[in-house]
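Handout, section B. The chain below has 101 residues.
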Amino acid sequence: MITCFIRYQIDPFRTDAFEQYARGWNDTIPRCGARLTGYYAPHEGSATTAYGIYDIADLAAYEAYRARLRDDPGGRDNFAFARDEGFVRSEDRIFLRKVTS
């Protein structure tokens, strides 16, 4: 099992839009094959950094998951919402493996 951490740089005046975007993944991510840990919006400190975290079996499963996500109606709608609203300035992904219990 690996964990995908997505770091988003967001418009600090559009956290409401990011939160709507994050809620849009609640059903879609699990339906497409990953275990969603959650999305995290700024609260204190940086107003521009947010995170999305989910687990997936391995990188091969990740590739299949991404294809399903692109074809999923909820996934397409959420990607379009982010593109049209422009509140995500950038995003980075890193894959980590848990080494403690």
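Note. The longest helix spans residues 59-71. Compare this with the example in section A.
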